[in-house]
Amino acid sequence: MSRIGVFVCHCGENISRTVDVERVAGEAAQLPGVAYSCDYKYMCSDPGQNLLKKALAEHNLDGVLVAACSPRMHEKTFRKAAQSAGLNPYLCDMGNIREHCSWVHEDREAATAKASDIVKLMVERVKRGKALAPITVPVTKRALVIGGGIAGIQAALDIADAGKEVILVEREPSIGGHMAQLSETFPTLDCSQCIMTPKMVDVANHPNITLYTYAEIEKVDGYIGNFQVTIRRKARSVVEDKCTGCGVCTSKCPKKKIPNEFDQNLGMRSAIYVPFPQAVPNTPVIDRENCTMFQSGKCGVCAKVCGPQAIDYEQQDTLVVEAVGAVVVATGFKLYSIDRKPEESPIKGYGEFGYGLIPDVIDGLTFERLASASGPTGGKILRPSDGKEPRQVVFIQCVGSRAREKGISYCSKICCMYTAKHTMLYRHKVHDGQAYVFYMDARTPGKGYDEFWRRAVEVEDAVYIRGMVSRLYQRDGKIVVMGSDTLVGVQVEIEADLVVLATAVQAQDGADLLAQKLGISYDKYNFYSEAHAKLKPVECATAGIYLAGACQGPKDIPDTVSQASAAAAKVITLFSKDQLERDPVVAKVNEKYCVGCLQCKKVCPYGAVEEKEIRDRQGNLVKVVANVNAGVCGGCGTCQATCPSKSVELDGYTDEQIMAMIEAL
Amino acid sequence: MHSAEKKHDFEPKVVAFVCTWCTYAGADLAGTSRMQYPPNVRVLKFPCTGRIDPVFILRAFQKGADGVLVSGCHPGDCHYMAGNFHARRRFAAFRVLLGFVGVDLNRLQFSWVSAAEGGKWVEVVTELTERVRAMGPMREFKELEQEEQWSATLTTPELQQAYESI
Lengths: 665, 166
Fold this sequence. Notes:
- The complex is a heterodimer of chains A (about 675) and B (about 170).
- Chain A is α/β, with parallel strands linked by helices.
- Chain A has five domains: about 5-125, 3-Layer(aba) Sandwich (Rossmann fold), CATH 3.40.50; about 135-235 and about 315-330 and about 510-580, FAD/NAD(P)-binding domain (3-Layer(bba) Sandwich), CATH 3.50.50; about 235-315, no CATH class; about 335-505, FAD/NAD(P)-binding domain (3-Layer(bba) Sandwich), CATH 3.50.50; about 585-665, 2-Layer Sandwich (Alpha-Beta Plaits).
- In chain A, the strands form twelve sheets. In chain A, strands 10-7-6-18-29 form a five-stranded parallel sheet. Chain A has a five-stranded parallel sheet with strand order 20-27-21-22-23.
- The mean pLDDT of chain A is about 95.
- In chain B, strand 1 (about 15-20), helix 1 and strand 2 form a beta-alpha-beta unit.
- Chain B has helices spanning about 25-30, 55-60, 85-100, 120-135, 140-145, 155-165; strands spanning about 15-20, 40-45, 65-70, 110.
- Chain B is globular.
- In chain B, about 40% of the residues lie in helices and about 15% in strands.
- Chain B has one domain: Rossmann fold (3-Layer(aba) Sandwich), CATH 3.40.50.
- Chain B is of the alpha/beta class.
- Chain B has a four-stranded parallel sheet, sandwiched between helices.
- Residues about 1-5 of chain B have low confidence and may be disordered.
- Chain B starts with 13 loop residues before the first strand and ends with a helix.
């Protein structure tokens, strides 16, 4: 007969408010196999854990069930406590009577009955639990950082400075990300290029960083400490080792009228190009879709003028496999743009803003390029349509953001601040110009942020109008902005020369596909989910994968850099150990029953099942059975459900345990 | 359901087999968001929907479940890469079989609920509970329940002997 201890937690009032915990503990004491039960206000607190340890010793318990919050919250806590009192940690389980019961039901009677049921079910499981020993695996002390924006750069530099190898993968031809596109940054107005480019050079020169630009993640295998990552290096058509970055090819390329994506299509670039002068690496790439050589086979100018013979038209994509122990995901964001086809976007209904057909309606990032000293206008604010200096500029905030009816309910967080910054930048360049801002709320939490916003209003004379814009249309070379001022309660009409939309921050294109390759979860907007909103803000639920920057949700630069350094610290902590303990939830084969049909081998997502020959003493083959490599097994249990002879068993989720729980229903 | 029979004549028993990475976490999110749903559901956690043997569903019906929910990660989002695909294929076949046996398939629901979909969890559970409540108790399987073991046991000496000789 088992001797199980049941500990029912009040969680302050979180559980006891709707669940009669004393009754649950009382009913648990009546269950067969339960030797001890009690309830306590905070089981996870120090006295709570001591209570558990004391009861283990005093009542000679051989299993523990803590009915409290979700095991995702405190399973580790209680297993550690049980272990320190001499119990195998895998004989300690949790019944979730908070998230799955007290928080979601109001009827005290029904919630108490449900909590009792949960305890009853889980006791059956604990009774049939097995003492397991954690599996130790070696840790590969190299990290992969995906994304070369400020988040990826910061994380890569921090990890590399700690003496660990880093592989930095960037999709674009250069690292730098969105921050390299910005003109000046709030709240200090220091030049983005001045603080960003030195870091980019540091990455390129760091002995511990291997940089793959123009490359994407193809496949990710393995688990914490032991990932194998396949990286696709897209064909650049320029051999990186040979190229000296002299720039002759880009200047001689006859095809020069291609809109430059880095300048938000305002400037032009050639078919062979570096995205911007400070690019790292300073190696050009051939845009094959626009290159005459690739389209018609006639040209070859760049190959002719290239001194070191670095042009290679025949270059193919190559796949590189790297072994790493941890992954930092820092893929950043994109800005919603109203000139995308509306049917492709989750944001519907900005037809009233002209779907981007009015050339002088631009988004915030385009304004950054206009204001940037290295931008297409050399830092002059000029209208895209006719190159004239705008006298009146209207900024519209919350385009897409906080618009539930248009598909996105969250706040994009950075727009209030960058719009205030834009009004200042505009005023600094066009002294007699007037900036108007349509806003819903001015949200300025952050060090020095509200002071900054006040400066825009009080010193730089930006006119803030609380209300939304209903329509934009062209009239006599101007854009008529029709909106409302909800504080005064009047309709407003402004004739603007330029309109800047603070459009929503969205997850990067393909964020969901990358998440599927990595096996991490994401929300309905494709932002990646952290393991815990407050206590594990940089970890993914998948061990060994960490998040940095706006791929997790809209973030400004200070927050992004903080999170990137935090992710780096987590990686360095992981790498401080030579061996790693992982949960022993792995499949085992009962060779006595196994008939060697190897159905399990076919379904195993990890390739962990191999054939094993059983021979007698004379060396004659008796039979072939399946064998699970515990180091590779991920513990999904698909093999067990597939096995026709029921001879594979997943530790921690055995048929016996599950059937006993069902019997107890 | 020991408690109820207050508001309704019949309180259905709903069993949910869920994967730990997506749906269990989604149900946790429903909790942290303080959403409300009927207290009729009992959740059994698995590492992956791929671990769920159809036998569990049958047994749950035998042991008094009036509705069964199986829920895991969305296709492509499986923590174990492909476990939910195996589950989907398995249950597609199993569902047909169950229908053939005569079980009203409205009692059995498969769904994908991600870790971010607390609202969807509430929707799925509420909908199934109310549907089953309207259908009334499931009697067919409970009457069939016998003392037999679900997996092979060596009940006779001959069987035992035959086994030992392998």
